[in-house]
Amino acid sequence: MITALAIAAFIVGIGGLVSGVLALRTLGRLRQSVALLSRGSSGRETILEVAERHMAASESVRKDILELQRDLVQSQQAADARIQQERTEIAKTVAELQESVKTVLRRVALVRYDAFDDLSGRLSFSLALMDEHGDGLTLTAIAGAAETRVYAKSLTRGVGEHPLSPEEASAVKAAQSR
Which residues of 154-166 are buried (b: 16+ CB within 10 A; e: fewer)? Predict the structure, then answer.
């Protein structure tokens, strides 16, 4: 029984020796890893120092990004202000143009007729030229056999300064309806 016990103790001793050797080997590898972490692979800079340097660079990039975002917001606000100012100026210009268009002679009508029974071909005419408010003039040309006479009458709100002939009144009415 002592022999069996001695064999078992020997086997356990060998197992302990193998475990000890493996433990020392693993400890050696761990020490190498710790040394690598503490002094780096080149022996000049540790991994922790490299990580700190990268973190500082990342912080610098983050600050640059924030500054660019602020600049972008300021630029957008300035552009919005310029656009609003231009819109105001355009609206003002459009209003001025609308006001001036009202004074343009754009209501026009022409009535042709025969002023005398002996002439045909409707050579006489009355022309009404008015703005948006009905202000303007009438031009009347009465063609005769020997001569042609031209008359002009001013209009205010569609009413002549002198009495209008039926043809002139017809031209004014036609111009107002356009």
Answer: ebeebebeeebbe
Give residue 143's domain range. Answer: 107-176
Q: How many residues does the chain have?
A: 178
Q: Mind listing the pLDDT tens digit for each residue in 85-141?
A: 999 999 999 999 988 887 888 899 999 998 887 777 788 999 999 998 899 999 999
Give me the helix-helix angle, 2-39 and 47-101, nearest 10°: 40
Do residues 74 and 129 both lie within one domain?
A: no
Contacts of 148 (CB under 8 A, 6+ apart): 123, 141, 142
- Residue with tokens 């008015």, as numbered in its chain: 130
Number of domains observed in the structure of the chain: 2
pLDDT computed for residue 93 by the predictor: 95
The token pair that represents 169 in the structure block = 């009144």
Instruction: Look at residue 68 and tell me if it is in a domain.
Output: yes
Specify whether the CB–CB gap between 140 and 168 falls below 8 A.
yes
Residue 49 lies in a domain: yes
Find the helix or strand (DSSP H, E) in which 79 lies: helix 47-101
